[in-house]
Design a protein that fits this description.
heterodimer, A: alpha+beta, four-stranded antiparallel β-sheet, 5 helices, 6 strands, B: alpha+beta, 29% strand
Chain lengths: 163, 163
C-alpha cells in the first residue's frame, strides 16, 4: 500500500501578455494563416512588431499555430467521457500511462474522486469496450471506471490548451 | 460535412510539417517533402476543403486570463435537454458540450475568470427550467491534451462552428 503522496510535475509560470499581444492573438484566431502584413494592418502596428511578437509568443509556448485533423477522417466515430478512481499514490503513474494511448484525447486530473477524467475516441462501441477491458484492464491501480458515451457533441473548441 | 478522400504518405507528411510549424511557408514544406510550392498549395487546399485538416490557433490557458476550468455535468429532464444544452454551448467560455449517457445528460468543459464567476455560472444553469443537478469538477493538471486533433461536432453546420 503506497503512502498516498504524489510527485507533481513542477508548474511552469509563463510570462504575462499585453494588449498588443492580445490583439495579435485575436487576429490570428480569426485567421491563423493571416500574413504578418495583414495582422499588422488589423492591429495597427508595424509588420516587424507583429513578426517579433508572434515569434516570442510561440517561443514562450503561449500560442501554437498548427494544422488540426478531424478524428472522424481517422476512423473514430465514438467519443466517451471516462471517470477513473485510482489508488492513492499511483495517480501520476496511471495518468502518464493513459496519456500514451493514441485514442485517449485528453487526460485531466481533477480535484476530488474520481481523480482522472479521460476523453477517449473509439471506432465504435466494440472498440471502446476493448479499450476499457484490455487497455485499462492491464493498468495497475484503477479501482473503478465510469464510462459515459457522447450521444451527440454540440460544441467543440480545441483552441485552448496547457501548452 | 467531411468528404471522404484518400490520403497518401505525402499528404500525411505535409500535415506533419504544418503541425510542427503552422506558420511554415508552402515553399519550406515543399522542400521538406520534395514537392514544388504549387503542389503543396494544391494538396493543402484539397485537405482543408474536404474537411480532413484545418489551420488552428491554440492559446495557452495562462494567456487567456481564465484562472479556473473544469468539467461541468448537468442533470436535466429530457423535455428541457435541447434548450439547456444550447444555453450551455452558447456560453463563450464553454469549450466542449456533449449530450451523454449516464448520470449526467450534459457534460461540458468550461473556463471561468475566477471562483465568483464560476459560482454565478453554475447557479444560472441550476436555475434553468428542468435542471435538477449541476456539478463542477475543477481541473488540476493536464497530463495529456491532443490539441492537434479536432472533434467535429455532430450535425453542427460548419459555418456555425466557432473556434
Amino acid at each position: 500500500m503506497s503512502s498516498g503522496k504524489e510527485q507533481w510535475p513542477a508548474a511552469v509560470r509563463k510570462r504575462s501578455i499585453d494588449e498588443t499581444d492580445r490583439r495579435i492573438i485575436a487576429a490570428l484566431r480569426a485567421d491563423p494563416q493571416a500574413s504578418n502584413r495583414d495582422v499588422a494592418r488589423i492591429v495597427e502596428v508595424s509588420e516587424m512588431t507583429v513578426s517579433n511578437r508572434i515569434d516570442a509568443l510561440i517561443d514562450d509556448n503561449l500560442i501554437k499555430i498548427t494544422v488540426q485533423r478531424d478524428v472522424r477522417t481517422l476512423g473514430s466515430h465514438c467519443l466517451a467521457h471516462v471517470e477513473l478512481d485510482v489508488e492513492g499514490g499511483r495517480l501520476n503513474e496511471v495518468a502518464n500511462a493513459l496519456a500514451q494511448f493514441e485514442q485517449v484525447f485528453a487526460v485531466t486530473i481533477v480535484i476530488g474522486n474520481p481523480q482522472i477524467v479521460l476523453l477517449v475516441f473509439a471506432k465504435d462501441n466494440q472498440d471502446l469496450q476493448r479499450f476499457i477491458q484490455e487497455d485499462l484492464g492491464r493498468l495497475q491501480g484503477i479501482r473503478q471506471a465510469n464510462v459515459s458515451l457522447a450521444l451527440q457533441t454540440i460544441k467543440v473548441d480545441t483552441g485552448i490548451a496547457a501548452l | 460535412m467531411t468528404k471522404p478522400i484518400l490520403l497518401d504518405r505525402t499528404d500525411e507528411e505535409i500535415i506533419r510539417q504544418f503541425q510542427m510549424n503552422g506558420r511554415s511557408s508552402n515553399r519550406a514544406v515543399g522542400e521538406a517533402v520534395g514537392l514544388s510550392e504549387g503542389a503543396v498549395r494544391k494538396r493543402l487546399k484539397r485537405l482543408t476543403e474536404s474537411g480532413h485538416a484545418s489551420y488552428g490557433l491554440i492559446v495557452d490557458i495562462q494567456a487567456t486570463g481564465m484562472a479556473i476550468s473544469g468539467f461541468l455535468s448537468v442533470q436535466v429532464a429530457p423535455s428541457a435537454l435541447a434548450a439547456v444544452s444550447r444555453q450551455v454551448a452558447d456560453m463563450e467560455t464553454c469549450a466542449l458540450c456533449m449530450l451523454t449517457t449516464g448520470n449526467a445528460n450534459i457534460r461540458a468543459y468550461i473556463y471561468e475568470k475566477d471562483a465568483l464567476s464560476l459560482a454565478n455560472t453554475t447557479a444560472r444553469i441550476a436555475a434553468m427550467n428542468g435542471v435538477s443537478k449541476v456539478e463542477f469538477r475543477e481541473a488540476m493538471y493536464f497530463t495529456q491534451h491532443r490539441y492537434e486533433l479536432l472533434m467535429m461536432p455532430d450535425g453542427y453546420p460548419s459555418s456555425e462552428w466557432t473556434l
